[in-house]
User: Fold this.
Amino acid sequence: MPTPSLLAGRLPPWLAHVLRAQRGPVPWNAVLRGALAALPLLVSVLAERPTAGVPAALGAMLAGINDRPGSRRSSVARLGFPAMAGAAGLLLGTVITAAVGGGRSLVLLPLLFGLLGLVAGAVSSTGPVASACGTQVLVTVVIGAGMPLPEPGPVRALLFLAGAGWLLLLRLVLPSPGSIGSGPYRLDGEREAVAAVYEAVAGLLRATGGPRARAGRAALSAALDQAQDALSGPRLRRYASSAAERRLHAQYAAAFPLAEAATALAWAGAPLPDRIVEGPRRLAAAVRIGGPCGPLAAPARTDAGLRALDDALLRAAAAFDRPASAPPGRRGARSYASVLRRAWSAAGREYGLRVGVCCATSTVVAQWLHHDHWYWLPATTVFLVKPDLGPLVSRVVCRAVGTVVGAAVFGGAALLASSPYPLVAAVALCGALLPVATRHFAVQTAVVTVLVLSLVVLGGEPPASWGRVVESLLACATVLLVGHLPLPGRRGHAVRAALDTAVGAAHRYLGHVLEARQDHDGRAALRRDAYRSLAAARAAIELSAAELPPVARHSAGSEGVASALERLIDTTTACAVQLEHPADELPSPHSELLAAHLSELDRAWAVPAR
Assistant:
């Protein structure tokens, strides 16, 4: 019997994506937080005010969807900013309802939601946190305008913030399972992220000369990205406020030369002795326990790559064995002007236009079908149009299947619910399942359907499970239709914008390596920007390739650009290692490869640009 992975390999990409799910250990800490997030709802039921707990539970649910592994500091932005956007949307929804008189509106309400969807969709294209903010503000505007709750708008917004804030408080207070006792527990997420960088360096060195070297380089780039995000979250002070945090920043900075040397060795392709990986492994263990690394085995200094690795190990040992006194550098924040430029780019306008059309169309259909309880259809549409959840057809199929399964489960359980407490228990159970369910959109949809239907009943509405199924299917049809409409302009703007950003980052990195070889800090920052932009471009290409053929063809040839770009960046890293000392000259083979990769990139870039 064929395995799911083999079966998926025989299917077209747009269908194989439906069967794909993320893997990994169960995040028990997130499961516990999800279950405890239902506590405000339980308190409101015990106080005989169940409707007051509905906005709080919605805030906790949406925050739970955004609750991803990472450091506590990064979770403040990842959960807090969308929560504030959601509270603002809930308040705005009640204002819109009062403005249109609370009755049926086939023109004004769809127009307002369409304009809001245009703006929120464009802003959502600028980054993952902005995407979560845009989604939450649209969903809560619709719920605030359509869900009949007795609490006034400002009270709903405060209750929503309280629910999301409760989950964020749990995220900040509860320790991560398996965290090491030494050092402040508040840094356990950051320490694990930095330790993962050194583990990834060891993995790349182990894979050098074999077929998994490319995957090892990609894993190292992803580990560096995650550590950068973990360490660069918001803080009360401008710089790291403790010796342990300054030490952790120094250990992260010490990983850059190691990553550069390991990438150069992988580019050379010569197998390495097993003892070379022991140094980065010992550094990873030292990060986790918060102690010194001890003696490290030095590699043989037989070529430029091994010399760079040896020098990097020596500098890392020095950074680990003495306390860091200098404050760490901060990752440059994007200005509001740059965010607005990205939102108004071709990719931002394309996505914003489709979100706006989906919001307006679904609102018209919902208002035309029935006057009361119309909010389910446009709220479902907003979730479906979000590209972070996968290709369009995959989202639609998963949403349809998940809604049917969730409604069936809730319909059976509702027959046994004679009081509100089983519904509260269902919300707590769904909250606990949500961190695991986010690995597949169909499972997430089923869990969210049960949770939201429980809240609907607690809010005083009839369950109408199968009516919700019909409305969800209508939302699927709306998003599928609008997602394939030939709107003005060309398709594939997101892929082209990501590739354009990556090409620019690669050229800046190459220019810096050739012209300012002794600026190690600037080179490290540009290298991270180049590899991070390459990863974002590959993610956009993979997403586009899994769409239906009429949409996927608009990004044809993009994989060739990404492959040429990857070879150019890897070769640039190898050249940086060769030019480590002022007296060094770039070997002729390296110069010839650089010229060849630049020509290859120009030829590949001309294909999707036509």
Summary: The first helix runs from residue 4 to 10. The chain has 26 helices and no strands. Residues 1-8, 325-333 have pLDDT under 50 and may be disordered. The two ends are 44 Å apart (CA to CA).
